[in-house]
Design a protein that fits this description.
The complex is a heterodimer of chains A (128) and B (111). Chain A has 128 residues and is mainly β. Chain A contains no helices and eleven strands. Chain A has strands at 3-7, 10-12, 18-25, 34-39, 45-51, 58-60, 68-73, 78-83, 92-99, 115-118, 122-126. In chain A, the strands form two sheets. In chain A, strands 2, 4, 5, 6, 9, 10 and 11 form a seven-stranded mixed β-sheet that branches. In chain A, strand 7 and strand 8 (78-83) form a beta hairpin. Chain A is elongated, with a radius of gyration of 14 Å. Chain A starts with a strand and ends with a strand. By secondary structure, chain B is mainly beta. In chain B, strand 5 and strand 6 (72-77) form a beta hairpin. The chains are: A mainly beta (128), B mainly beta (111). The interface between A and B is medium-sized, with 24 and 24 residues.
Chain lengths: 128, 111
Amino acid sequence: QVQLVESGGGVVQPGRSLRLSCAASGFIFSNYGIHWVRQAPGKGLEWVAGVSYDGSDKYYADSVKGRFTISRDNSKNTLYLQMNSLSAEDTAVFYCAKDSGRYCTSTSCSRSWDFDYWGQGTLVTVSS
Amino acid sequence: QSALTQPASVSGSPGQSITISCTGTSSDVGTYNLVSWYQQHPGKAPKLMIFEVGKRPSGVSNRFSGSKSGNTASLTISGLQAEDEADYYCCSFAGSSTFVLFGGGTKLTVL
């Protein structure tokens, strides 16, 4: 079965950096786009970033552009989010979410821009 | 770009039907048939309930349906059950600059 397991969250001071990881299993990781979505405490969902199946295309929300970098290592079935210049407004549970990729060739699936599997999330707290 | 607009809360009694609206603009909901809906129970990850406006993933009850008219998408839940009580979020592709927008979320209470 599909599993996404995030790690790397924790407490970090404002202005510092943190890298999140998402280990994927149960599907052909290298065929699908994958995203980060966050949820501040008591708030709604906010899409953060996405990356294409091969890592060649990357997409960011305006709120993180220039500070966050999404990447993937298909040899390790792992997604990353490098977060720099963190502020209190970045405090949230960060989820990785698989793009549904409904229309596939033998080697890749289109971006469907909806998310059929989610991890359990990892909490990032930015505080001094 | 701003988040999609949803009512903060809706409620209904068991067996009744409710509809949650999701209002966007001509740059997102109004242009793309890439509207999805997610159910989130407290402390849990979101679950995909509807994709491409009105399609249901395998395993999702047919009590859940989606539609769109102009810049507004809607999620309808018929035959309300206690287990439907949760937060619901709409989501839309918003073009090659903004990419993805979520609604602010709607808390569904089953009375």
